[in-house]
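Before relying on records like the one below, remember that each one covers exactly one chain. Contacts with other chains, cofactors or solvent are not represented anywhere in the record.
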Amino acid sequence: MKTFRMVFTVAALMLAGLAFAPLDGYAASNNDSSTAGKDPNMTKGQAAVDVGDWNEAVRHFTSAVKVDSDNADAHNMLAYSYRRSGQLDPAFEHYGHALAINPRHKGANEYIGEAYLMSGDLAKAEEHLAALKDICGKGCRETRKLTKSIARYKESHDKQALLDDDQNW
């Protein structure tokens, strides 16, 4: 009986951990929205991101934003999906919303920096890199990725160079 309770407890903890595990597109440290992890649109949107279906991702993250307009993660992922589909204007709009809700959102700072590089605005990208260094230092994943994107941009002066490496997004 004791073994059964231990196995049951471990299984319950594992399931609880899976239920609250962050989606790959937005890190747990960015996750301070009240509906994060609860809205099925976030899960469906992330699944669309995982297969590169940007229109489907936009659709689901738009629904998530309608459910909770104060969800910085939903705005960030909606902006990310717009950016990946080549629509920079709505991407900037939703990155702006995400950062208005949470100015220290690591994902939004990284991704808007990359969007600024795509639009040719190196100075704005560097502003967001400085913000990331203030938020999480030089060693966090978002800082490293934006640093790499800026270096690649400076080397090539070609915003299309940002499109060649999926890891760079």
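The chain has eight helices and no strands.
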